């Protein structure tokens, strides 16, 4: 077995990644907004046959380019429209990412650095979790990271620089086609900051820059050009306008304090975030290639962190590109410790123990709170949140304490290995324990959280799917009616007008869902019949005229 792993490490990595990221992807409904948003764009591509222009409600949706919906649409054609297909592209991204990290890490020295990088990425909370999601960011981040890697690689191999730069530009172009022009901004800032730090340009001649810049434009301009030729410039203009607005203004419901992403990365990327801290200030300890790559990773980390700390919209996954440099720096530092046969610093041991205990306590407390919601209710001023807690969720199984138990077991193994002078197995126990903690948390908690937050609305819309009706969320933004109500492209052109649905001469029955504290506004309409309420959601029907 050891010989097989030595000769075919990629097979083992791919198999482990597939086991971590693929099973039970469809076990929980997609979450509003982002997961359902992207999946609905993909579903409407299949229904309408229009794969060029993203749509929501069969109207142009200017916020997203089409690459990720293309991936989801392909998965839906293969596996059927549903949660599994919507999340499958990111599971495949997880497999590709771990294979790439092993290859890059191993190419800069011994294979141990590659294995450590893989272990830190798969064994940290948010990096692991994102590969089981249905959002754009894993692919977007991978394209940017790979583009910067090939750009850097071209500086090491001048004879193959043209090939590296073509691949770098193409990968960055794919990132633009996945999420938007912010990919150009991030890559450009990284190059500028690195050049200023080194006081020299990575490429001295003009031709490599021209080749790289041209390659970054090919894929986006192909899509932009086709869209303009077929439908005119409106979609492209509105798309670019939205991207600019997103950077300059806070999106509704997505504000946050300036240090928001620091907290997200420190806690969300545990344990890699703690192991990475010494690598931010440590002097050169690796070979020249490792040290230059470390500089690029430091630049990438700070560019992303500073940029999205300045951006007024605060969303957890905006800083997710930092996962690559954070996990590399953690692997780099541990590789140094193992080579030098040094012990873990006392502050790092204490931080690991304390953070593990905090996570274990929080996840052990969650099932208890689920069985004693009366403890929470007096402290909730939001009537919708209070009504959410009325959902019938079974927290009685002892398995709900499994995530906390796995963390505590990993902590015991960590301390035991350190006591026996074995830092390698100690660190591995933390990483494996965290990966298993994420898996157990997904199986034990995510479905229950979804039952509180949105399942009543999802089930209501599912009950209407396939019927010739209109479904509308009123008083809050939601994509649930589109995807789970399977809204079609037929019906009146006025169907997107809320006032028409509420008071106009509708040609189909119209169903409305709203939150409990906004229900009185709908009760004021005489034609609306309240047909039920559940877990904070209130449902209405208006019969066709």
Describe it for me?
The protein has 545 residues and is mainly α. The chain folds into three domains: 2-340, no CATH class; 346-453, no CATH class; 457-542, no CATH class. 64% of the residues lie in helices and 5% in strands. A hairpin with a 2-residue loop joins strand 5 and strand 6 (537-542). Helix 5 packs antiparallel against helix 6 and helix 9 (161-178) packs parallel to helix 11 (206-231). The longest helix has 31 residues, at 423-453. The model has no long low-confidence stretch (mean pLDDT 90).
Structural class: mainly alpha
H/E element order: HHHEEHHHHHHHHHHHHHHHHHHEHHEHEE
Shape: globular
- Main sheet specs: 4 strands, mixed
Tally the helices. 24
Q: pLDDT below 50 for ≥5 consecutive residues: which ranges? A: none
Content of β-strand: under 5%
What Rg, in angstroms, do the CA atoms define?
Answer: 25 Å
Distance between the termini: 72 Å
Number of domains: 3
Strand order of the largest sheet: 3-4-6-5
Estimate the mean pLDDT confidence.
Answer: 90
Helix percent band:
55-70%
| β-strand number | 6
């Amino acid at each position: 077995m050891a010989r097989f792993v030595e000769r075919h490490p990629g097979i083992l990595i791919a198999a482990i990644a597939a086991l971590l990221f693929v099973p039970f992807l469809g076990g929980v409904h997609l979450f509003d907004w982002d997961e359902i948003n992207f999946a609905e764009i993909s579903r409407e591509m299949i229904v309408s046959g229009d794969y060029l222009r993203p749509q929501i409600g069969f109207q142009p949706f200017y916020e997203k380019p089409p690459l990720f919906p293309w991936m989801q649409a392909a998965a839906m054609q293969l596996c059927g429209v549903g949660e599994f297909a919507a999340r499958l592209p990111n599971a495949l991204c997880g497999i590709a990412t771990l294979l790439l990290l092993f290859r890059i890490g191993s190419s800069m020295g011994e294979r141990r650095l590659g294995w450590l990088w893989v272990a830190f990425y798969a064994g940290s909370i948010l990096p692991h979790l994102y590969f089981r999601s249905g959002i754009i960011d894993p692919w977007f981040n991978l394209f940017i990271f790979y583009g910067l890697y090939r750009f850097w690689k071209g500086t090491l191999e001048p004879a193959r620089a043209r090939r590296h730069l073509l691949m770098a530009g193409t990968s960055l172009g794919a990132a633009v086609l996945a999420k938007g022009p912010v990919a150009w901004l991030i890559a450009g800032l990284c190059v500028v900051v690195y050049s200023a730090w080194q006081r020299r340009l990575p490429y001295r001649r003009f031709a490599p820059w021209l080749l790289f810049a041209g390659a970054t434009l090919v894929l986006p301009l192909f899509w932009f050009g086709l869209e303009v030729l077929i439908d005119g410039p409106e979609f492209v203009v509105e798309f670019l306008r939205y991207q600019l607005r997103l950077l300059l203004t806070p999106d509704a419901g997505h504000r946050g304090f300036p240090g928001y992403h620091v907290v997200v990365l420190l806690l969300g990327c545990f344990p890699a975030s703690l192991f990475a801290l010494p690598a931010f200030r440590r002097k050169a300890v690796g070979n020249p290639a490792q040290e230059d790559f470390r500089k690029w990773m430091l630049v990438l980390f700070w560019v992303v962190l500073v940029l999205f700390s300045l951006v007024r919209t605060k969303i957890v996954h905006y800083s997710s590109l930092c996962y690559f440099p954070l996990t590399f720096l953690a692997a780099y530092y541990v590789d140094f410790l193992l080579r030098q046969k040094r012990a873990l610093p006392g502050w790092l041991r204490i931080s690991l123990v304390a953070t593990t205990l905090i996570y274990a306590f929080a996840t052990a407390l969650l099932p208890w709170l689920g069985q004693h919601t009366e403890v929470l209710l007096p402290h909730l001023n939001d009537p919708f949140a209070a009504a959410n807690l009325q959902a019938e969720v079974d927290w009685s199984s002892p398995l709900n304490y499994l995530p906390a138990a796995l963390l505590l077991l990993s902590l015991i193994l960590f301390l035991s290995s350190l006591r026996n002078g074995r830092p390698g197995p100690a660190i591995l126990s933390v990483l494996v324990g965290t990966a298993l903690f994420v898996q157990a948390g997904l199986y034990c908690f995510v479905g229950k959280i979804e039952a509180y937050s949105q399942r009543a609305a999802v089930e209501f819309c599912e009950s209407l799917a396939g019927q010739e009706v209109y479904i509308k969320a009123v008083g809050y933004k939601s994509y649930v009616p589109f995807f789970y109500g399977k809204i079609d492209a037929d019906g009146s052109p006025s169907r997107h007008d809320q006032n028409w649905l509420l008071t106009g001469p509708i040609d189909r029955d119209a169903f409305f869902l709203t939150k409990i504290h906004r229900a009185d506004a709908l009760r004021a309409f005489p034609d609306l019949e309240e047909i039920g309420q559940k877990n904070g959601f209130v449902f209405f029907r208006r019969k066709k005229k």
